[in-house]
Fold:
Amino acid sequence: LGSYHARGTRSYSVSSAFDFGTNLFPLSQTTAGGYAPLGAPSVTSLERYTGLRDGSLEKHKTLTYLNGLSLIVGLIIGSGIFSSPSQVNFNAGSPGAALIVWVIAGVLAWTGAASYAELGGAIPLNGGPQVYLSKIFGEMAGFLFTWCAVFVLKPGSAAIIAIIFGEYVVRAFIGTEVETISPWINKGVGFAGVLFVTFINCASTKLATLVGDISMLFKFGALLAIAIIGAVVAITGVPSKGQPNQDWKNIGWFEGTSTNISDWAVALYAGLWAYDGWDNTNYVVGEFKRPNRDLPRAIHTAMPVVILCYLMANVSYFLVLPLRTISATDTIAVQFGAKAFGSIGALILALVVSASCLGALNATAFTSGRLVYAAGKEGYLPAIFGKIGVGKSSSGMTGNNRLQHRSRFHKAFSWLCGGSAAFGYTPVNAMLFNTALIAAYVAVGEFGTLITFYGVAGYTFYFLTVLGLIVLRIREPQLERPYKTWITTPIIFCCVSLFLLSRAVIAEPLQTLIVVAFVLAGVPAYFWRIYKRDGSIKLPNWKFWRR
Ligand code: ARG
Structure:
């Protein structure tokens, strides 16, 4: 398999990319995206793969360390820490056990993120797991990931966040007194939020990252405020609205801890949802200015900070709210605000949580759009999704020219977007496709079902990808790895995710079956798309562990 396998002499870095790609992804007459025909020397398949041509995304390397940080933190801190504590607490059985679950989930997410950091350094291309799985297990594995991620995982998880966003916004306006709200109102508001971030992300990368950076400040602010309020209430014992607050000296920290292993697994899933999103920067590694330095850095700052914030927030919840309330509410932050400052507090916290969810929607739109774009480029989806800019134009340059200075408004807006023509340099078609799928999930989705499906399918691919890291270590020990994690890290991650998956199979056999059926449906789709692209069918590489 060419120079990629030559020990120690090649890396997947973009600069050395132009001569190994041809062997990995043989070009054919019908290259995705309509690029150069077979044998044309100027376009290697890696170029096709990463889109390193004029006007394509990776040409505009704009992302910095701070952007990376806000892409991770921006997606991780979304809805979860403001809504999952009830499930964690209910299933773990006691505050102490719940805190342990939060630590375990955080460390697990961190081991996953560290493993992804190594993969991202060794294979610094846009696309995340799609690229890693393709390189390690063969293209079918990469395709199946993309199949699931594009059609279910990304839009499904965005839909969950959107629904929670809607719930919080509606709560902010009608208060906590009204018991039931029509789910359609929540859903409508949630979808409006999705449209908003889609617009921003289609307009410009700079604008999208700016929104991300601002919302990151909000999130940290909110969590810090929750922690400080908790500490103040605990120390001064100031009751609000005449109700006495939780007396921390009387909390039975480990009273009622569950001894049932399935309960712990469910609690862990709920915690992991709140930490999910640690893979977010891996989708856009190709757009980093200095990926080798900034990707591991971003991950290793984000994870400990998030874990610390989550622990502080949870301790605060325990100090301020009665345990019964915590286990029973889906909008814990609002209850918290109401308890501390009455209805004004509830309003403020509801707004801040909405902002946090909106930031998470923004971060997920940013990367999902690029995932769909990569899939379009690679021929997994129709080529129109692999275009930059509006409509059918094949590159950003054309899109840019067509759009340049159309109107005064566009001019002004483009200036706001950091100088480049608005809507000229983003994967607009891919974004819109993603938004359409989110809309469908928001409409039909029900929170509980979506979360289980997401957990099972998501962890299957996390597991496979991190397993791939181990395979790659054995198969290609000399491969250049700018960042290398301890080998225990991926092993721990693989073991715990296997445990989680096995519990899910037992607890939710039907859901698991649906996931399996969906993945299998991707197999004929794979053959169809590859045949369409290459004119021949590529069988999976069963001996992936051999060099
Ligand atoms: N952790 C996020 C939250 O609490 C959810 C992240 C969803 N994951 C994703 N890859 N979109 O809301």
User: Anything to note?
Assistant: Residues 75-76, 78-80, 157, 161, 273-274, 276-277, 360, 364 surround arginine (CB under 6 Å). Residues 1-55, 392-405 have pLDDT under 50 and may be disordered. The chain is about 65% helix and 0% strand. The two ends are 8 Å apart (CA to CA).
